Amino acid sequence: MTGGDDSKGGGLDWAAAYKRLERLASTTEAATSVDPVREAALLDERARALARPLEHQRQAGPLLELVHFRSGEQDYALETRFVLEVMRAPEQLVPLPGAPELLHGLTLLHGEVLAVVELAPLFGRSAPATHGPVLVVGQGRPELGLRADVVEEVLVLARDTLLAPPPALGAQERTLVSGISRDGIIVLEAEALLGDGRLFFDFSEERSA
User: Rounded to an integer, what distance in angstroms lies between the CA atom of residue 177 and that of residue 190?
Assistant: First the structure.
């Protein structure tokens, strides 16, 4: 994954990381196989969520279809149109000792290297050390991986029911938040997230070094 100018290469063993990624590439098909029973259950759950009738009487504004997920003891949601897929094979993640706190590691997606990042440091909290599913996020193509503790249900909310971001958030953090649901879920502003240079790292120079 390549992007802004905020990469920090010092202290990272890039050669070892890419060797691990190459080994993962040879076993990707087996590692990413999904239990067909679990996959069917997840699809059924999504279908039921989308089929539920909406409460139109108090939903005058545009509706948002959201993927609800939990990361670092906080609930988040992201519009489904920005979530290209969910990777549920954390064993494919390659951690990078000495990397910035935002960079959880690297993984392979269809043979391409994808950076997996943490949301917690963006909101002033420490990044958890645990692995979990990865939401592949982008506008038409994979751009970023978001580590999650668990991916929950698909939600449908009216935009005008969202509460404003709390004043406690700084100006930079507020640009990443569309609003807060009445259940305390932070609805992320996907375009702002994908435009945040702190979440993108240029690996080309480190790989050729």
Answer: 9
Mention every residue, 6+ apart, whose C-beta is less than 8 A from residue 143. 1, 3, 137, 194
Give, in order, the Cα–Cα distances in Å from 46 to each of 66, 81, 88, 159. Answer: 11, 14, 16, 20
Q: What type of residue sits at position 62?
A: P
- In the structure encoding, which two tokens stand for residue 185, read together? 């879920």
Query: Looking up tokens 């690996």, which residue turns up?
Result: 203
Whole-model pTM over 0.90: no
Looking only at the bridges linking them, the beta strands covering 150-158 and 83-87 are unpaired
CA distance 155 to 179: 14
User: pLDDT tens-digit profile of 19-56?
Assistant: 777 776 666 555 445 566 666 666 666 656 655 555 44
Residue 74: the pLDDT is 92
Q: Which of 178, 170, 122, 177 is nearest to 147 (CA)?
A: 122
175: left (phi over 0), alpha (psi -120 to 50) or beta: alpha
Amino acid at 169: L
